[in-house]
Amino acid sequence: MGGHNVNIAFICTESLPSPAIRGGAIQTMIDGVAPYLTNNHDLTIFSVSDPALADEDRREGIRYIRVRRDTFTSDICEHLSANSFDLIHVFNRPAHAAEYKAASPGSCIVLGMHNEMLHEKKISEPNGRRAVETSDGIAAISHYIKKTIVRRFPSAERKIDVVYSGVDLAQYPPVWSDEGLRIRAEARSKFGLTANKVLLFAGRLSKNKGVDKLIRAMPAILRKHPDAVLVVAGGKWFSDNSKTDYIRSLHRLAEPLKERVIFTEYVPQENMPELFLAADVFVCTSQWPEPLARVHYEAMAAGTPVITTNRGGNGEAVLHEQNGLLIDAYDRPAAFVSPVHRILKERSFARWMAKNGRTMVELNFQFSHTAERLERLYRRVTKNEPGE
Question: What is the C-alpha R_g of the chain?
Fold first, then answer.
């Protein structure tokens, strides 16, 4: 693999197309790393068909093949049998790894684990073991995900490398740069936020993302900062703004706060940098053990101070009082009040943490770093060496 032109297939999940025209953390990561990988390798990306995209096309040296959702795995198996790929990277669907290996027995299989898809609630013991045995290497999105896999399948340990996701820094001029300040001013004026202290939540509006905790904390925050506004960016699912019971309950919670809570609905990925730059603090309220939410990288890249819950892998990117604040009592609305107050009040401390966050992204969490980590893993599996 140290040489050139390894023939690689990426198999996306069946939920969203590639490129990431409808969002999605995995699709966004693939968009980010693909240009680096195509410098040395041939890359084919399989994803679900979409009315806005052709079933097959080639752009910037990458071949895209899109298949129907209802026959997703079998259609891809047909393509794998007809082509010879040196390496097949299966994103977040370990249950299908054995089928893909059977369709292309000569290929190395890499499992990309972005969530707890090897948890007993998601996959049976024999199927999970088969997925681990079938794979030559496993790319875990965080040490937290690596730990959860090894706890259930100890034999996976020697196969796993941690491959953090990243951001494209070109899209995130930091807020203290001239460009960052210009985007911030434009975005704040667009949303009518010029004179406010802006809190931002960005993510799916689901119970496990927990934004209700922050809305419940707002009355206490407003007592200390009457000019605070909470911007809630997100919908039910990527590019889906239909209303669930939970989303309706959020609107009811926010009603008494009137214009102090703004719901933007789903925001396309290309418009996220302006929202991060418009904010004075980014708050991640995750209630579930997050694999490691990519919004942390985005906020840090923009130079926005970060508050997050100490859940799952979040604490791998956010170090308490170094580049953000971690909340242990994640399920108590009151626990969010004093960290928000601290960041809005202690401006130089907030700026210092934000600059540390930006530096951390520059050094560790760019897509170029993600691609390097993948290259290392791919070299290892094609040479049959043990993991990290």
Answer: 21
**For residue 309, what are the β-bridge partners?**
327
Q: How many CB atoms lie within 10 A of CB 379?
A: 15
pTM over 0.85: yes
**Residue 309 · residue 144 · CB < 8 Å:** no
* CA–CA gap between residue 194 and residue 215 (Å, rounded): 21
The tokens describing 90, both together, are 């299966």
Alpha helices in 106-232 (DSSP H): 125-134, 143-152, 178-190, 211-224
Query: In terms of Cα–Cα distance, which of 144, 111, 120 is closest to 293?
Result: 144
Cβ burial of 245 (10 Å; 0-12, 13-18, 19+) is: exposed
Q: How far apart are CA 287 and CA 289, in angstroms?
A: 7
C-alpha distances in Å from residue 214, one per residue of 120, 136, 236, 339, 371: 31, 43, 17, 12, 35
Q: Nearest CA to 52 among 263, 268, 272?
A: 268
Q: How many residues does the chain have?
A: 388
- Longest Cα–Cα distance in the chain: 65
Q: Which residues contact 357 (CB under 8 A, 6 or more apart)?
A: 299, 300, 303, 305, 306, 318, 323, 324
User: Which has the closest alpha carbon to 15: 5, 3, 25?
Assistant: 25
User: What is the distance between the alpha carbons of residues 324 and 139, in angstroms, rounded to a whole number?
Assistant: 26
3-class DSSP state of 318: coil
Task: Please write the tens of the pLDDT for every residue from 142-201.
Answer: 999 999 999 999 999 999 999 999 999 999 999 999 999 999 999 999 999 988 999 999
Among 144, 32, 47, 143, which Cα is nearest to 89's? 47
**How far apart are the C-alpha atoms of 147 and 128, rounded to whole Å?**
15
Alpha carbons 16 and 284: distance in angstroms, whole number:
23
pLDDT digits (tens, 9 = 90+) for 258-309: 999 999 988 888 899 999 999 999 999 999 999 999 999 999 999 999 999 9
